[in-house]
Design a protein that fits this description.
Elements (H helix, E strand, L loop, with lengths): L13 H13 L4 E4 L14 H29 L3 E6 L12 H21 L4 E8 L8 H5 L1 H10 L8 H12 L10 E4 L7
Parallel strand pairs: 1-2, 2-3, 3-4
Length: about 200
């Protein structure tokens, strides 16, 4: 059964509304995948406070709020559950002209570990996926830049940009019982970028 619920994760009260609506509709939350993300590009010296706040809110603060609410429910129901956060290669690297994005994704990786440490005893597995260079709207500027696109492809052993479907298998695995003994892990899905 599927039911769509939408909200703007740039607004502080949206996570509470989304979790309440989900529990009202289904009565339980067994899996949470924190996949919302945004990016704003500018040199650090020109980066606006508004852009910083917007990126941190969507990419990091909403992840905490949704995880806190879903985790509380999972602890109270006693059955545990799975939380999968979407990190990034920039959880490990600094990037260029994306200071808020890099900071937020570094934060997602550390938040994943912190929540995993607290909640593993409650049968809640908290893990993250760190996608590499994926062909999405967030990377359109890089794909369109002929020089940067070539440089990226030259470093990826797989020789191609990732597709959203490349992340799907990792998400299914981390949401399944096959990952029951995995906790606090940041799974890199990058075509070999980090190993090069």
């Amino acid at each position: 059964m599927a039911h769509a619920i939408s909200g703007n994760l740039g607004e502080v009260d949206t996570p509470t509304k989304l979790v309440a609506q989900t529990l009202e509709r289904f009565g339980s939350i067994d899996i949470l995948i924190n996949n919302a993300g945004t990016i704003r590009r500018a040199p650090a010296v020109d980066y606006s406070d508004d852009d910083w706040a917007a990126v941190i809110e969507v990419n990091l603060s909403s992840v905490f709020r949704l995880s806190k609410l879903a985790g509380k429910h999972m602890i109270e129901n006693g059955r545990g559950g799975k939380i999968v956060n979407i990190a990034s290669l920039l959880s490990f690297q600094g990037g260029i002209t994306v200071p808020a994005y890099a900071a937020s994704k570094g934060g997602v990786a550390q938040l994943t570990k912190a929540l995993a440490n607290e909640w593993a005893k409650h049968k809640i597995n908290v893990n993250a996926i760190a996608p590499g260079y994926m062909r999405t709207a967030n990377t359109a500027a890089l794909q369109a830049d002929e020089t940067r696109n070539r440089q990226i492809l030259e470093r990826i052993p797989a020789g191609r940009w990732g597709e959203p479907d490349d992340v799907a298998g990792a998400a299914v695995f981390l949401s399944s019982r096959a990952s029951d003994y995995i906790s606090g892990h940041i799974m890199v899905v990058d075509g070999g970028w980090m190993g090069r």
